[in-house]
Design a protein that fits this description.
- This protein has one domain.
- The chain has four helices and no strands.
- Helix 2 packs across helix 4 and helix 3 crosses helix 4.
- The longest helix is centred in the N-terminal third of the chain and has 16 residues.
- It is mostly helical.
């Protein structure tokens, strides 16, 4: 995945997380976002994003950071 695709994947993750900002329990919100991503993202997209986060190439928000281990 190119830098552009990686950054776009992070942007999409952050947008999905923004849709769950109303949920006060961050564990519930993270699980809901992970469920959405598992349904609609390819395994390759998930792996690439997770690798980029682990390598420190991208910096997700707190909620998005909680989602990453759930989609790995």
């Amino acid at each position: 995945m190119s830098h552009h695709e990686r950054d776009h994947a992070l942007q999409m993750l952050e947008q999905i997380c923004a849709n769950y900002c109303w949920e006060k329990d961050s564990a519930v919100a993270a699980a809901a976002v992970a469920s959405h991503i598992k349904r609609f993202w390819t395994p390759a997209m998930r792996r690439t994003l997770c690798s980029a986060v682990e390598a420190g190439e991208v910096s997700p928000s707190e909620l998005a950071g909680r989602v990453v281990p759930l989609i790995a």
